[in-house]
Amino acid sequence: QVQLVESGGGSVQAGxxxxxxxxxxGYTYSSVCEGWFRQAPGKEREGVAFIGxxxxxxxxxxxVKGRFTISQDNTKNTAYLxxxxxxxxxTAMYYCVARPLRCPRIPxxxxxxxxxxxxxxxxxx
Length: 125
Hints:
The chain is mostly beta strands and 125 residues long. Helix content is 0%, strand content 49%.
């Protein structure tokens, strides 16, 4: 059974940084796409950043380009989302996702079968 365990959320002031981690267990696929969605109260779910095996197929939402960086450590089955220059509008629940296929060109919720439990990120002004 595939499990995604997230950590690293929290509260920070605007301009600060946080790093999210997502450790996957229960699967060994040759090709994987991992990433994060986020959802704020009253807003639609948004794809934030995604990365394919060996860094191929990286995708960032326009709203986070230049501020967020996604990476992966295959030896630890862990993906990371480094979030810098955080803004109040980044406040949301962040969900780690994974799928045993290449990353889609424009990732959508339906593209991913495996979801983490979610971690809250709160940015105060």
